[in-house]
Model the fold of this input.
Amino acid sequence: MLVDDHPVALKGLQVALRNRHPEFAIDETGSIAGAEELVYRRKPYKLLVLDYELPDAVGFSGFFRLRQAISETPIAILSSRAEPAVISTAKALGAAGILLKTEGLDELADHVDTLLNGQPVFPSDVPSHSGIKDLNARLRTLSTAQLRVLMALAGGALNKQIAADLDLSEATVKAHLTAIFRKLGVSNRLQALLATRMLLEPALPK
Done:
């Protein structure tokens, strides 16, 4: 599956892959919500290529949502940005690779072949971040509902807004937050925000 909200980039990569592998079935969508719908209708997928900057995601929030929905499928991040913070965070979180939009279509298709063969695609000099790895392990313990609440919290929403956006009662939101704080090893909203900031801020425009 290809997830990108830029039609030209989406079609270009799709054509390159179809020319090389006409046997591939390639689904495409321009949002996290659209990808989730495809996952529930069409899974399993062999590979998901996910644009890093989408209208309904901030930072790696979309990555987490899709990982919950399609946990057995490798997810590669497609990005126009090559900042070390983005690349190292993607690697620490368990992404299959980083594909840069600045590369040619043939190079991107080569990388997809590498990913489909089970090999990662990252620059050789990416630093390791043990703090992100630890947070990633904690985030994996969250349920899908808890992750959605956490991402809404990280986006600055209050309990009432989270409840309305996710079609939950405020009591349910509070119960989810209590469980989230416990699993993340924090005691309040501010600490939870600080813990997740490193996963969201790399995507913010400069």
Q: What stands out?
A: The mean pLDDT is 86. The radius of gyration is 17 Å. The chain has two domains: 2-116, 130-203. The longest strand covers residues 75-79.
